[in-house]
Amino acid sequence: xxxxxxxxxxxxxxxxxxxxxxxxxxxxxxxxxxxxxxxxxxxxxxxxxxxxxxxxxxxxxxxxxxxxxxxxxxxxxxxxxxxxxxxxxxxxxxxxxxxxxxxxxxxxxxxxxxxxxxxxxxxxxxxxxxxxxxxxxxxxxxxxxxxxxxxxxxxxxxxxxxxxxxxxxxxxxxxxxxxxxxxxxxxxxxxxxxxxxxxxxxxxxxxxxxxxxxxxxxxxxxxxxxxxxxxxxxxxxxxxxxxxxxxxxxxxxxxxxxxxxxxxxxxxxxxxxxxxxxxxxxxxxxxxxxxxxxxxxxxxxxxxxxxxxxxxxxxxxxxxxxxxxxxxxxxxxxxxxxxxxxxxxxxxxxxxxxxxxxxxxxxxxxxxxxxxxxxxxxxxxxxx
Length: 384
What we know:
This protein is mainly alpha-helical. The chain has helices spanning 2-6, 35-55, 75-82, 86-104, 107-138, 145-152, 165-185, 188-207, 218-241, 244-251, 259-279, 286-299, 303-315, 317-323, 342-383; strands spanning 69-70, 73-74. The longest helix is centred in the last third of the chain and has 42 residues, at 342-383.
């Protein structure tokens, strides 16, 4: 009996083998996105957006000095082409996070939380609008006060071309309770298929005017922007509900691979997506390339330095989105291109965006705290 008790237990042949020092130690539910993972993905989206807007142009002569060329175009141009999935990454993260929040809270708390998120975003946006309106005044190119007011009320978002996504994000948050309720009640195939149809319609309205018998108007433009953003949002919801990352991890036996091999496979996938997008240089396949890039980024071992960099960019991603165009197009045209080379241009742009974001976050946090204080004071007096 004692000998039997000391006998080591038999090893389950179907169990995942223990990871050695070179293996990735993630498996099962641990492969799903955490808040930190979502922040790093937002950092990737912010970096992709900046690369897209800086380098995805055929008129690169006179802007910067490329070192490498492929097919007669700068190498960075092809990566900038792949980077057009930045909106896909943002929407995917939003859908994933909203599905997680809805599962952990009841409908009333979720709606209240969505309202608070929109209020926080509005405060942050107003601070950016007013700050750069003041900068414009100081550099001698003031915006008309009515134009500033129209931007602050989300009526006309023409102070910065990247702000087109502001209203789309608001619509996604407003429609999310209805969408999430439907996807919890009915089969997700219907919603994914419907979102794909809306994506095709929105794509035609945005990039192929004349294909559909619809006159261009404010409503049709907003529908097009919303339609092309809804599909990746729904994909994020589906990935959360169906534990998509864990399923992919099991399918490719991710945890059984050494870290260096996982990194090599993920880099190869990014290169394949870049080549694919080079052959099909259209936003029509952005959901496909975006989802592939999300998976490659999530599964790729990034090391401490990589995780720190993308987490840092993710914390400033909203302000990077709202400010980056001011530094090369709107208020300071050509400023960042004075750095001449690709990497210095990118680093200069990020430095300006992050530097301004640090200052803006102080203002945004202070203003929100003042609003919270006033709200609490009013609530206390109302109770009395």
